[in-house]
Amino acid sequence: MDFFYYPQPLADLIAAFSRLPGIGPKTAGRLAFYALQHADEATGLSKAISAALKDIRYCSICGNYTDSDPCRICSSPKRNREILCVVEQSRDVVALEKTGEYKGLYHVLHGVLSPMEGIGPEQLNIGGLLSRLEGVSEIVIAVNPTVEGEATALYLARLLKPLQIKVTRIAHGLPVGADLEYADEVTIARALEGRRPL
């Protein structure tokens, strides 16, 4: 997008929007003009962002985003403290919680191993994981089934197995409603590996 035609503050606003993930230059321009035309909504958005940046922090136990420390999940007496689910990001905790099926605790890594991007074990919250294994009987690894996610899962499995803790991986395969004919080979292979009796 050519910013030459815009006043500098508007060009800066468009540029700021375009740096957000999934927002291209045209959408950034539409958002900037919308913000200018709807000042009350833009001011509310600005206040919400400022409040989140001020009040949200990492839980000192699990690494999830929280407004109280420890977070509500870590401090809940109703959670099963023998099971720990390891996820990539805080948004993964939300996805798992929405199912209502998992009753254990979480640990957020804040990424996955990616040597190409310079992300090794030291850049992830692995040290925090190792410091909270007392009383844990099972680690559920629930990172995404990407190349980096699989490398992270294997790394964690090798790290944890000597500690006599059961290490499991969430199943991967065909989503409900999917057609076999349109699924790729890796997805079908994973579905076959994760099959269970009826």
TrEMBL record:
Q: Record's InterPro entries?
A: DNA_Rcmb_RecR, Rcmb_RecR, Rcmb_RecR_Znf, TOPRIM_dom, TOPRIM_RecR
**Gene Ontology biological-process annotations:** DNA recombination; DNA repair
Q: Which SUPFAM superfamilies match?
A: Recombination protein RecR
Alphabetically list the UniProt keywords: DNA damage, DNA recombination, DNA repair, Metal-binding, Zinc, Zinc-finger
Pfam families linked = RecR_C, RecR_HhH, RecR_ZnF, Toprim_4
The Toprim domain covers: 82-175
Q: Where are the zinc fingers (C4-type)?
A: 59-74
Q: Name one GO molecular function term.
A: DNA binding
Fetch the PROSITE patterns from UniProt: RECR (PS01300), TOPRIM (PS50880)
Give me the segments passing through the membrane. none
Function of this protein? May play a role in DNA repair. It seems to be involved in an RecBC-independent recombinational process of DNA repair. It may act with RecF and RecO.
Family under the similarity heading: Belongs to the RecR family.
Looking up PANTHER family in the UniProt record yields:
RECOMBINATION PROTEIN RECR (PTHR30446:SF0)
Q: Which HAMAP family does the UniProt entry name for this protein?
A: RecR
Provide the protein name: Recombination protein RecR
